[in-house]
From TrEMBL, chain A:
<feature type="domain" description="Exoribonuclease phosphorolytic">
    <location>
        <begin position="176"/>
        <end position="238"/>
    </location>
</feature>
<dbReference type="GO" id="GO:0005730">
    <property type="term" value="C:nucleolus"/>
</dbReference>
<keyword id="KW-0539">Nucleus</keyword>
<keyword id="KW-0963">Cytoplasm</keyword>
<dbReference type="Pfam" id="PF03725">
    <property type="entry name" value="RNase_PH_C"/>
</dbReference>
<comment type="similarity">
    <text>Belongs to the RNase PH family.</text>
</comment>
<dbReference type="InterPro" id="IPR015847">
    <property type="entry name" value="ExoRNase_PH_dom2"/>
</dbReference>
<feature type="domain" description="Exoribonuclease phosphorolytic">
    <location>
        <begin position="45"/>
        <end position="173"/>
    </location>
</feature>
<dbReference type="GO" id="GO:0071028">
    <property type="term" value="P:nuclear mRNA surveillance"/>
</dbReference>
From TrEMBL, chain B:
<dbReference type="InterPro" id="IPR050590">
    <property type="entry name" value="Exosome_comp_Rrp42_subfam"/>
</dbReference>
<dbReference type="GO" id="GO:0034473">
    <property type="term" value="P:U1 snRNA 3'-end processing"/>
</dbReference>
<dbReference type="GO" id="GO:0016075">
    <property type="term" value="P:rRNA catabolic process"/>
</dbReference>
<dbReference type="Pfam" id="PF01138">
    <property type="entry name" value="RNase_PH"/>
</dbReference>
<dbReference type="GO" id="GO:0005730">
    <property type="term" value="C:nucleolus"/>
</dbReference>
<dbReference type="GO" id="GO:0071038">
    <property type="term" value="P:TRAMP-dependent tRNA surveillance pathway"/>
</dbReference>
<dbReference type="InterPro" id="IPR001247">
    <property type="entry name" value="ExoRNase_PH_dom1"/>
</dbReference>
<dbReference type="GO" id="GO:0000176">
    <property type="term" value="C:nuclear exosome (RNase complex)"/>
</dbReference>
<dbReference type="GO" id="GO:0071028">
    <property type="term" value="P:nuclear mRNA surveillance"/>
</dbReference>
Amino acid sequence: MAQNYDRRRINGPEDSYPPIFEEEEEDTLSWNIAKPREGRSPQDIRPIFLQPGLINQANGSAYIETDKTKIACAVYGPRQSKTTTFSENGRLNVEVKFSPFSCARRKAPLRDAEDRSLAVSIHQAVLSSVRLELLPKSTIDVFITIIENDGIEGCISSGTIAASAALADAGIEVLGLVASCSAAALGDEIWLDPTEKEARKSEGTLILACMPALGIVTNVWQSGRMTVEKATQCLDLCQERCTDIHAVVAQSLLETSKAS
Amino acid sequence: MSSLSKAEKSYIQSSLLSKPPLRADGRALYDFRAVALETGVAPLANGSARINIGRNAHDGGGGTEILAAVKLEVETVADGEGVDGGRVVGTVSCSPAAYPHLPSGALDDLQHDLTSVLHDTVSYLEKKSWLLNLDVIVLSDDGNVCDALFMAARAALWDTKVPRTRSVEYQAKKAGNNAEGNRDIEMDEEGKSGFDTRITKKVTDFELPDYWDEGEILDGRNIWPICVTLNLLPPVFFLDAALQEESSIPLRLHLMFSLPPSEKPRLQTFRLLGPSGVDVPLIKSLIKEGEVHARSIWTALDAKLKDEDIRRNQKARDRFLHR
């Protein structure tokens, strides 16, 4: 912990607690089994806003917004690997950082701003789409900044979409665009693209990342309790929705490349 | 983990794909190496287990060795950390001796990855509550750490005993009494189960009538999940990969199942790892196959754990009598 301490910052007290707000009546999701989902139908996802090429100095970048989830992603590279050892395949580094104000509770810079499990999941999702065998001795860095967070599931799936779009924007050869979608099991129903509150109510969640153009699944990340039938049902629903997301990503990439 | 040359990798892959499939140690594709398990190895923990997969029968060395221990703590809910009803924190530490070739940064990353898998899987389950610390140490790695991790965790949790609690309150006596015996201790005489420390209205603290090695077994100890790792080398898959096999395959599928006899089988965690992809129909069939293999691991582990219970209680008592 000592080396993770930046004396140039105003660090604030060592122990602090976030203020507790009185929860408003409509704010608490008063859902119980047999009630329909509030705001949208179970298989609806939140609208996606995707803008590639927002960060000028990066080789490729993308900004994604799905309702309350806001993520910026920058891709640098391919550039020469710093290590001296020869590597036949290129390396893909993914780093995910939370901005301090992204969650209900402050994420202290340096200390808990970095989330490795998110980075591992997104890395797994994009890794098999990138043609790393064409880039020996080189490294591609993907930096993802979470500006606003509405549930870890949304962060992983939106982060994956942004990373894949940014890689395409950087002109790095990929086998296909990676689209990703999450699902939550509540009672008998399956809700796609759950918000943080919905995910907290659910028994289990599943995140699927795939390349819809090739029909290949690159990442599955399920947590919580689910029956096997439910999990396979989630897989099907997510894959179906990924095809739609793929169209959104392709469209926005096309528009950006036409505009420039 | 270990670095293999391309030639070695292709040798292992082609022998796995040959008919009949061949593995370096002569096992069939779905065979496990010998698993050795012992519970109650850490006397100061509330529950513990040690597991070894693939120990060499001749010299007693080698294999994946994992030590798991459960330590219970009491925490205050009002501070924000505690949760009403108790919580579970899983941690995995990897001994540097198990990974001599890894730099410390990579070791931290590996530790973190294993911790997040364990923690996410086991923690899905206000005043004062128990905090269950599940600490797992990887002593040596000879492949298939994940399966061993969950077997050890399940064994340790199975072995865990929660001390009974009794709620107490210290209060000043009402006016009218004389000065002597000014403080009175009020007790709630019911011996409640360990995990239920949600204290009645006015009681502020509790005491433990048990010694550290007594207590009740953890409620619902039957639902703790186990993991089965399917190592994919399409079109085949195999179980319990040794270290070299592990580094020569493109894709792994971790399936954590909870298979209590009274309920439907549940999938607790399900993850895909590796630089390759699969299609959805294959995943579905793999989940089905995984469930079958998970069930056989589950049954074997259950039998062994019951055996361990008998060994440590009944047989130990008999031996004490006939000494």
